[in-house]
Write a structure and sequence with these properties.
Helix content is 14%, strand content 26%. The strands form 6 sheets. Strands 7-10-13-16-19-24-27-30-33-36-38 form an 11-stranded parallel beta sheet, with no helix packed on it.
């Protein structure tokens, strides 16, 4: 993939997206911007109808949009059924980060003897790599990151600065770990003897599939017995807690502050909104969407959208509803008595 250390042309952009356009093939393109802010050498995109009002006045060199809006576009257009996906693909062309990766081991990094390094590996300043580690081709280990013993990291994986990967973690290709995340820390396992707690050694590991991304300051705990398993193409936002022996199916996405208790199994193509909590030992089937701030305490066996959190309201209304909530059990019992009396009469 080309990264825009030099100027691309509109023809380059169209070829990358696999779309046709009408306009100047040699029009230079130096970046991306919103419809409202784009200059004459930038590409804009329209993926949300809320910004349709900005289309008529855009100064962009071209606009990436759905065909239904093409006739209203005053500049060259790049039409796609999913313009947001097109924007995602174009963003990779202008990402400067890969161009800064210089293969080699920084003098301040500590790499144990016998570590296996693939071609083009980049180990940045003050990183620590313990014995038995295997790094695939073009892996980037960010500054200050720590890789525990016997980890295996697949090709084209990137660890940003200050990532901790504990011993025995296995991850696939093209994984991205954002700064501050911890993969393979001990699960929350303790036994109580009536007076105090006794730690349970966490004997399993963590397995991450291909194309997984984990956000900053998120934790994926190692299994107590067996592994915690994150499937292919799973996207995990920042400040997410995944407990020991959780399984998450391929192509699922977890928004910020999700918490999943131990041994819960989440299916494929699931989406968990911000602040969702899943109790332990549950099974969530494929194709489930749970809206933000919901608490799930029972298994879900049918795909669909599920919610439990209540929306915000004025404090006065909330206080009234809170009082009525306490009265629900009494109201239900009174209603049952009324219905029984009506049946008997």
């Amino acid at each position: 993939m080309t990264h825009a250390s030099y100027t691309l042309t509109l023809a380059d952009i169209a070829r990358h997206l696999g779309v046709d356009f009408e306009g100047d093939d040699h029009q230079p393109i130096r970046g991306l911007a919103t419809l409202k802010e784009a200059a004459s050498d930038q590409v804009a995109f329209l993926a949300n109808r809320a910004y349709l009002k900005d289309l008529a006045t855009t100064q962009a060199a071209a606009v990436l949009l759905h065909p239904e809006h093409g006739k209203n576009c005053p500049v060259p257009r790049l039409e796609m059924e999913n313009p947001y996906l097109g924007y995602a693909k174009l963003s990779q062309l202008f990402d400067p980060l890969p161009a800064r990766d210089v293969p080699g081991i920084h003098p301040t990094a500590m790499v144990a003897d016998g570590v296996m390094l693939g071609d083009g590996v980049c180990v940045q300043a003050n990183a620590v790599i313990e014995p038995g580690v295997v790094l695939g081709d073009r892996v980037v280990i960010g500054a200050g990151s720590v890789i525990g013993a016997d980890c295996v990291i697949g090709d084209d994986t990137r660890l940003h600065a200050n990532v901790t990967v504990c011993h025995g973690v296995v991850m696939g290709k093209r994984v991205i770990l954002q700064s501050g995340c911890v993969i393979g820390g001990d699960g929350f396992g303790f036994a109580h003897d009536g007076a105090g707690w006794h730690k349970i050694a966490q004997l399993g590991g963590v397995v991450l599939g291909d194309d997984v991304e984990v956000g900053s300051c998120s934790s994926i705990d190692r299994g107590a017995l067996g592994d915690t398993v994150i499937g292919n193409d799973v996207k995990i936002d920042s400040q997410v807690q995944i407990a020991h022996n959780v399984t998450i199916g391929d192509h699922s996405a977890l928004a910020g502050c999700v918490g999943i208790a131990g041994s819960t199994k989440v299916g494929k193509h699931c989406m968990l909104g911000g602040g969702v909590g899943l109790s332990g030992h549950l099974t969530i089937c494929d194709g489930v969407q749970v809206t933000g701030m919901s608490l799930v305490t029972n298994s879900i066996h049918e795909p669909g959208v599920y919610s439990s959190g209540t929306g915000a309201m004025s404090n006065t209304q909330w206080r009234k509803n809170a009082v009525r909530f306490k009265q629900l059990d009494d109201i239900a019992k009174r209603l049952a008595r009324v219905e029984k009396s009506q049946r008997e009469s």
